[in-house]
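Sanity check

After download, print the first record. It should look like this:
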Amino acid sequence: MDMLDKDIRELQKRLRDGSIRRAYKGIISYMSRLRTLCAEQRGERFVSALYQGYFDMTYFALLSDTLKERNLKLAIVFNYETFGFEIWLAARNRRVQSRYWDLLLNAGYHKHRLMKPGAGIDAIVTATLAEGCSLEDQESLTNQILDGIRAFESDIVSFLSEVDPG
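Expected structure tokens:
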């Protein structure tokens, strides 16, 4: 049996009991509500659609005028590998990504993890918003995530304003 066929049969078997489907629906529903809350706070034009992903990540992007004029954005990510929520500074394309990675590296940015550009790497900077969390207490989780978004964005925008006044 082909490896893909074997994997598909395993997925089918595991989906039959319903737990994977319920968990995935819970994650997507939560991310959708979080996206809606961000859109209400920032305005719809500053929040992208929800990308559901391929069991690698689910995310949506946040924009601000300051980041948008630099061709940058923030991505609010549920990472399936770590089962945690992250925030990424990301760029519109690989050229912009490389430029800002170089800029941050050479300016000595070290508050959050810098990600060296490469195949499959979309982030320039990453930070954990919540890990090992439960979706049972969504109000607490949401507050933690929103506080983390504000702190990360403030830090990034302040740093960029100093090293790249534009």
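If your output differs, re-run the checksum step. Summary of this record's structure: Helices lie at 3-16, 19-42, 65-68, 94-106, 138-163.
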